[in-house]
Amino acid sequence: MRVLLRVLAPLLSLVVAAIGALVVVEVVAAWVGRVSGAGLLVPWRDWRTTVQNTLWTAEPVLWIAVGVIVVGAVLLLVGLLARRHDVALDAPSPGLTVATAPRVLARLVGTRVRAADPVTAASVTASARSVVVNARGRGDTDALREAARGAASGVLDALPLARRPRLTVRATPEQPGSKGVQ
């Protein structure tokens, strides 16, 4: 969603700037007295006449209203979904806000879990609310899970997290003959 927001913001800014430039040109032309007829670039007077003769209950007005509501709802949804999903850390002083990306938290946890003895591979997904570790390794599933949980908990305890995320650890023993098992 952030990519869509990064594309929409300049486009909407250009549209608003173009409309503003048109208004400035039309107002200056009207002040100077250069306007003959409907308008210099845009037929404002014809539009005004059309709008004055159109009722609020007319079908085109209703369709335009529905279109504006849909576009507004889509823009609102894009804006709300495009927020940053950072993981908040405890601030060292009252005036500071400290945060890290979920990707950084996942890398920290993943590095520590992969360094655990029975773990041969691990994938980690992190957010501000949860950290999910999928560990694969040698030996018993329970021992593998506890080793991965201990390593991940050690990282989460060591970091000054404002709110500790929920930790979920899944362990899968490696099958003989698979990559990583000799």
From TrEMBL:
The chain crosses the membrane at residues 61-82. Keywords: Membrane, Transmembrane, Transmembrane helix. It comes from the Bacteria. InterPro entries: DUF6286 (IPR046253). Residues 70-171 form the DUF6286 domain. This is DUF6286 domain-containing protein. It comes from Pseudonocardia alni.
